[in-house]
Amino acid sequence: MTRNHFLGFGCSATTLLKDQFKINTFSTEEYCKRIDEGNLPTSLTIRFSLHQRMVYYLFWTAYSTRVDAAAFERFFGVPLKKAYGWEMTMAKVLGFVTEEHGIYQMTLKGAFYYHYYENFYTLAYIDKMWGILRREAFPEKIVL
Fold first, then answer.
1. CA neighbor of 57 nearest in space, from 16, 89, 118
2. Could you give the percent of the chain with pLDDT greater than 70?
3. What angle do CA 42, 64, 25 make, to 5 degrees?
4. Relative to the CA of 81, which of 53, 96, 106, 119 has its CA 20 to 30 Å away?
């Protein structure tokens, strides 16, 4: 999940594009059926607004404990400080990150809180979504 784009192939594989995230069906039978019919085996598509994609990018990029402001700007065409200047300043003030030459590096305190909330997110959203997708090949919609 720490890549900006990737294509997933097979049951339960995920694909990340610039403006959407896709999850293939978890059902082998339904996956094969869709492929045989010449259709995509996508079970769920999340379409991102620009703001949602920026949050997604920052959430998973921060997993490495560092965010490069220049890489953010290359990807989105918007400076990180313009999009999240107040938030990045507060992260520095609260001792969650340090900044040097446009690289935001998590402190031990920042890494602790990041991973604490990342675990909460995983349990509250990803595990719930995966549970539904394991039971239903193509759910109409998922409300988290």
1. 16
2. 99
3. 10
4. 119
Q: Is 65 left (phi over 0), alpha (psi -120 to 50) or beta?
A: left
Q: What is the pTM of this model?
A: 0.84
Determine the Cα–Cα distance for residues 39 and 24; give it in Å rounded to an integer: 11
Amino acid at 51: H
* Tokens describing residue 27: 């059902």
Q: How far is 94 from 87, CA to CA, in rounded Å? A: 10
Of the CA atoms within 13 Å of residue 21, those in its CB half-sphere come to 14
Pairing mode, strands 103-106 and 66-68: antiparallel
Residue 24 contacts residue 41 (beta carbons within 8 Å): yes
- Give the C-alpha separation, 88 to 94, whole Å: 10
Structure tokens at 101: 């030459």
pLDDT, tens only, 5-62: 999 999 999 999 999 999 999 999 999 999 999 999 999 999 999 999 999 999 989 9
